[in-house]
Automatic annotation (TrEMBL):
Family of this protein: Belongs to the SEC10 family.
InterPro entries for the chain: Sec10-like, Sec10_HB, Sec10_N
Occurrences of domain Exocyst complex component Sec10 N-terminal (ranges): 93-209
Annotated protein name in UniProt: Exocyst complex component Sec10
Natural source organism: Penstemon smallii
Length: 829
């Protein structure tokens, strides 16, 4: 039987204790909510299975683990042979009946659910049809509502436009009424001013009431504008119209009275403005400034305010000069002026900033007033100071260096320009409208910048002249203190001359670097800067070129003096009576020559260092300023090369003189030290002397000593060219020297030893052509060693030296006895 609903909900399903008498009853509500098939199945079988489970448990306890199960039945040991026992699940039939009953009920329930679903579908379709019909009707209603709103909006817009037109008409009418009312008042006031010339006593109280000054000023300006405009029209009209002429005369009276009244009112406002300014009453000052702005846009008030500032008092501006320049008559330095200008300009800037704050709070157009204030600073106060600071000296009669020279003026100019530029930037930051502060600042220095480069060049020339005079004075003082004792021996010829100093050239470059920095400061355009820099560079090149050329020429003079001493020695040596004196003179000439050689090499070395300093300065500081202008850099390089050409010429001539000096001493040593027996050793049975001759040793020692200066001073191609020329001259001189002697075989061996010594020395020249020549000399020396019959095979590998070898063969001591002349004719033909 079916249980109550609560019973079903509690246990999900109900079943009687006897399955047949109380079949299972299923309800649709049992499947609602959280349905579980496992719960359904459990509720179906729970009442049947527990009894079976209890029996299974008892059987298991009775038989133990030896029980067996065959085809669903248990067997015990006692009846194992009897066959089949009772079934394992006795409730199977009950379960089958229960499941069949459940299936029947589930099928019925499904039919019931399907019927309900069908009815629900029909009802939903009916309701959906009704809903669609309702929505269609609503859409039609909304469309009609939108149309009504559109008509209403159009109507409202039309009404609004009509109202706006009415408002415009009303506003125009009110404006016309207001204008008419003001015109009536203005005509009334104009008639008052037109009453009689100079009579301002009968005016309305408006024009005399201090509390209505602003209104009176506005009306007066309108009246004057109207009257002046009318006068202009009347002046252009036909003069025959009597009414116009009368009106013109009447308005002239009004214009004159209005002008007089405006002047009086403006003066009255200015007086009030000054009184408020002394009390620092900014509100009253602002009120007056606003009213005064109606008179000529307030120009008079602006200028009046700026003109009364204490910073423009004459006493204050005179104090500026004392602060920067010091007491009258005192010598000022650029550093002192720089500090003074920095202090003064800072004070001016601070004052301007304070005034700018007041101006901003008082005037309706503060930028215009600031412009007037800054302009007054740059046109009055700063020029008065610069006029006393920058006194342009004369180029014809420049001030002496003791007084500072032209360089003092240029340094003052640079300091003043730089500091004034800083001041201009500070003033610009205050805010002064469209005022060209930079242009005003540049105009202050135009008289100085126009011819600036001429002063720069003149200053560089003055510095150079002064330095040269200083060096000459030092050299003269040194000469006087040293005396002329050493000169008599010829050893101090070079020391008495002024040597080139790299320090002096460095000073020239420092002057020029300072000048170029001023060029960069004063020249804003690249073309102008390049032109000024080239002008300054030209001065440097002229100075360095002249200085090192003169130094080389002085060093050459010492070489010339040494050569003169040698000439006197040669002339004196002709007379045998003065042989001893000649030897002393020869030593003096040799010492003078060696000293002058060393002196010239030092001069050449310092000349090269000086040129290198100039080239480095050009590369580091000048090139970047010239490159932006087409052709400027190339032209400067050509100019530098041209400026150094004179020095190169002097150096070349001096090096030639050095070679002459060296060769003269070599010839003297060879002439004095070389003996005839050196190359014709007596055949006394003593073995030959394989040492170099004394003359060779002296010459090599001299060359090693004197050329040490050349190796140090010269470098690169200059060194190579000098040593190659010297090697050629040495080779030629030795060959000529040996032509004066005759050689026997042992003498030939000594000659070969001498040639080896000379060759070893010239190998330090690193000149392959010279090495080759001395190697050939060594080969030719073999002509003195070999037997006459072997001469033909001596030059088989070197046919190029046969001609020179022929001259050497003639120097053999057996040339005549061995009749080598005939053999030579057959050998070299």
């Amino acid at each position: 039987m079916k249980e109550s609903k609560d019973g079903v909900r509690t246990g999900r399903f109900s079943k009687s204790s006897s399955t047949d008498s109380y079949p299972l009853v299923l309800d649709i509500d049992d499947f609602k909510g959280e349905f579980s098939f496992d719960a359904l199945f459990g509720n179906l079988v729970n009442e049947l299975l527990p009894s079976y489970l209890e029996e299974e448990t008892d059987t298991s306890e009775g038989h133990g683990s030896n029980d067996t199960m065959l085809n669903g039945h248990f067997r015990t040991p006692s009846d194992a042979a009897q066959g089949m026992s009772s079934p394992l699940f006795p409730e199977v039939d009950a379960l089958l009946s229960l499941f069949k009953n459940s299936c029947v009920q589930l099928v019925d329930l499904r039919k019931q659910v399907d019927g309900k679903l069908y009815n629900l579908k029909k009802e939903v379709a009916s309701q959906d049809s009704k809903h669609r019909k309702t929505l269609s009707e609503l859409e039609k209603g909304v469309d009609g509502l939108f149309d009504s709103f559109a008509r209403l909006d159009s109507r409202i817009s039309s009404v609004g436009q009509t109202a706006a037109k009415i408002g415009d008409h009303l506003q125009s009418a009110d404006s016309q009424r207001e204008t008419a009312s003001q015109t009536i008042d203005l005509i009334k006031y104009l008639m008052e001013f037109n009453s009689s010339p100079g009579d301002l006593m009968e005016l309305s109280p408006l024009f005399s009431d201090d509390s209505r000054v602003a209104e009176a000023a506005t009306i007066a300006q309108k009246l004057r504008s109207f009257a002046e405009e009318d006068l202009g029209r009347q002046g252009m009209a036909v003069s025959s119209v009597v009414g116009n002429a009368t009106a013109s005369r009447g308005l002239e009276v009004a214009v004159a009275n209005l002008q007089e009244y405006c002047n009086e009112l403006e003066n009255r406002l200015l007086t009030r403005f000054d009184a408020a300014s002394q009390k620092r009453d900014l509100s009253t000052m602002a009120e007056c400034a606003k009213i005064l702005s109606q008179f000529n846009r307030g120009t008079s008030a602006m200028q009046h305010y700026v003109g009364l500032r204490p910073m423009f008092d004459v006493e204050v501006m005179n104090e500026d000069a004392r602060l920067v320049l010091g007491e009258p008559g005192s010598q000022t330095s650029p550093s002192h002026v720089a500090r003074g200008l920095s202090s003064l300009y800072k004070e001016i800037t601070d004052t301007v900033r304070k005034e700018a704050a007041t101006i901003t709070a008082v005037f309706p157009s503060p930028s215009d007033v600031k412009s007037i204030l800054v302009q007054r600073v740059l046109e009055d106060r700063v020029p008065m100071l610069l006029e006393k600071l920058l006194v342009k000296p004369s180029l014809v009669n420049p001030p002496a260096m003791e007084e500072g020279g032209l360089i003092l003026y240029l340094r003052m100019l640079a300091v003043a320009y730089e500091k004034t530029q800083d001041l201009a930037r500070e003033l610009r930051s205050v805010g002064c409208g469209d005022l060209d502060v930079e242009g005003l600042t540049e105009s202050l220095f135009l008289p100085h910048k126009d011819i600036y480069i001429e002063y720069e060049q003149a200053s560089l020339r003055q510095l150079y002249r002064t330095k040269m005079e200083e060096l000459r004075a030092e050299n003269q003082q040194s000469s006087e203190s040293t005396g002329t004792i050493g000169r008599s021996k010829g050893a101090s010829i070079a020391s008495s001359q002024q040597q080139i100093s790299v320090t002096v050239v460095t000073e020239f470059v420092r002057w020029n670097e300072e000048a170029v920095s001023r060029c960069a400061l004063f020249s804003s355009q690249p073309a102008t800067l390049a032109a000024n820099v080239r002008a300054a560079l030209t001065c440097l090149l002229d100075q360095v070129g002249q200085y090192i050329t003169e130094g080389l020429e002085r060093a050459r003079d010492s070489l010339t003096e040494a050569a003169a001493l040698r000439e006197r020695f040669v002339l004196a040596s002709v007379s045998r009576r003065v042989a001893a004196q000649a030897a002393s003179s020869a030593e003096a000439a040799a010492a003078a020559g060696e000293s002058s050689f060393r002196s010239f090499m030092v001069a050449v070395q310092r000349c090269g260092s000086s040129v290198a300093i100039v080239q480095q300065y050009f590369a580091n500081s000048i090139s970047r300023l010239l490159l932006p202008v087409d052709g400027a850099h190339a032209a400067a390089c050509e100019e530098m090369a041209s400026a150094m050409s004179n020095a190169e010429g002097a150096a070349y001539k001096g090096l030639q003189q050095c070679i002459e000096t060296v060769m003269a001493e070599v010839e003297r040593l060879l002439s004095a030290e070389q003996k005839a027996t050196d190359y014709r050793s007596p055949d006394d049975g003593i073995g030959p002397d394989h040492r170099a001759t004394n003359a060779c040793a002296r010459v090599v020692a001299y060359l090693s000593r004197v050329l040490e200066a050349a190796f140090t001073a010269l470098e690169g191609l200059n060194k190579q060219a000098f040593l190659t020329e010297l090697g050629n001259r040495l080779h030629k001189g030795l060959v000529s020297h040996w032509q004066k002697f005759t050689f026997n075989p042992s003498g030939g061996l000594r000659l070969k030893r001498d040639i080896t010594e000379y060759g070893e020395f010239v190998r330090s020249f690193n000149a392959p052509t010279i090495d080759e020549k001395f190697e050939l000399l060594g080969i030719m020396a073999n002509v003195f060693i070999v037997a006459p019959e072997s001469l033909s095979t001596l030059f088989e590998g070197t046919p190029s030296i046969r001609k020179d070898a022929q001259r050497f063969i003639q120097l053999r001591d057996d040339y005549k006895s061995a009749k080598l002349a005939a053999k030579l004719s057959s050998l070299f033909t």
